[in-house]
């Protein structure tokens, strides 16, 4: 307990030092509007549709997702209002829009295993998979699908912030991950982030600084914890089901050569926390990724802005 308290104190001190030197990017205006709506108990479907329609690319992505094979909706979706009322629901569209809009703050390199193309492909696949896994969880512990989807989209946001704050170190980390795909990214970060201007981030890594950004942006607590703990297979604290869903999804995706998990074996505690057997997880993933056309298209559009 004392060691954990000391680590939190150290992390807080490092964060204060970083914020004195570096300016964290502001939340994009579109994301800020969606977050305000999320906190408004009187918000309506028309309010949400009106905000999403302000960004044509975001609106197109929401409609395309509603029409994807994942939902198997047989009718025609002609508008954001249709996507909300007939397929996705208010909560799902709100969290999806919030996650997609937040990425517009960053102009990181596109190529490499941590570049924007790989980042958004991993994010979209992870969000879709954790949403599907959550649907099969026991009802008593099943989280809201919209928040789960948001957690999947944002869980590696720390990489975007690293690229924003420390371009040379991020470029080196990107090359290291490409050269050593068998090495955990958390270990490679420690080799890089103690150098140059990033020395204050020694041993903090993308998970910790990503959670700081979510705190600064006043995102939901479930999201902050997901970013901080999604590489911690021993975590059992508040909202533990969220990072453990992410860990299961990341290990599954590693078997498809997507993402930064150390291997494709599923963490036993994570399976226990989400209440699913290993066979069920792989069965869900196999069915979900039979046709990835719409997911790949969404990822490409997000990567190119």
Helix-strand makeup class: mainly alpha
Domains, number: 2
The biggest sheet, with number of strands, parallel, antiparallel or mixed sense and barrel status, is: none
Mean residue pLDDT: 88
Share of helix, binned: 55-70%
Shape: globular
Task: Give the percentage of residues in beta strands.
Answer: under 5%
CATH architecture of the largest domain, please? Answer: Orthogonal Bundle
Distance from N terminus to C terminus (CA atoms, Å) equals 44 Å
Q: Which sequence of SSEs, written as H and E, runs from N to C? A: HHHHHHHHHHHHHHHHH
List keywords for this structure.
2 domains, single chain, 305 residues, mainly alpha
Would you write up a description of this structure?
This protein has 305 residues and is mostly helical. It has 2 domains: 2-24 and 108-303, Hypothetical protein af1432 (Orthogonal Bundle), CATH 1.10.3210.10; 26-105, no CATH class. Helices cover 64% and strands 0% of the residues. The protein has 17 helices and no strands. The model has no long low-confidence stretch (mean pLDDT 88).
């Amino acid at each position: 307990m004392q060691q954990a308290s000391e680590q939190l104190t150290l992390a807080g001190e490092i964060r204060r030092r970083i914020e004195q030197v570096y300016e964290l990017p502001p939340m994009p205006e579109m994301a800020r509007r969606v977050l305000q709506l999320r906190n408004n108990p009187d918000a309506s479907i028309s309010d949400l549709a009106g905000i999403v329609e302000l960004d044509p690319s975001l609106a197109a992505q929401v409609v395309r997702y509603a029409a994807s094979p994942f939902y198997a909706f047989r009718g025609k979706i002609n508008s954001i209002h249709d996507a909300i009322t007939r397929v996705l629901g208010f909560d799902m569209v709100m969290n999806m829009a919030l996650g997609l809009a937040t990425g517009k703050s960053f102009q990181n390199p596109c190529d490499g295993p941590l570049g924007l193309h790989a980042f958004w492909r991993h994010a979209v696949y992870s969000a879709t998979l954790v949403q599907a896994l959550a649907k099969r969880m026991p009802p008593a512990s099943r989280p809201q699908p919209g928040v789960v989807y948001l957690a999947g989209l944002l869980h590696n946001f720390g990489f975007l912030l690293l690229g924003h704050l420390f371009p040379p170190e991020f470029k080196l980390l990107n090359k290291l991950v490409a050269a050593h795909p068998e090495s955990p990214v958390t270990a490679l970060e420690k080799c890089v982030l103690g150098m140059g201007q990033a020395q204050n981030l020694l041993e903090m890594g993308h998970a910790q600084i990503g959670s700081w950004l979510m705190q600064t942006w006043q995102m939901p607590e479930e999201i902050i914890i997901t970013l901080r703990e999604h590489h911690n297979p021993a975590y059992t604290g508040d909202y533990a089901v969220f990072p453990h869903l992410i860990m299961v999804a990341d290990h599954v995706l590693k078997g498809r050569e997507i993402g930064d998990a150390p291997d494709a074996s599923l963490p036993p505690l994570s399976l226990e926390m989400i209440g699913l057997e290993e066979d069920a997880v792989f069965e869900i993933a196999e069915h979900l990724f039979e046709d990835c056309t719409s997911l790949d298209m969404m990822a490409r559009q997000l990567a190119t802005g």
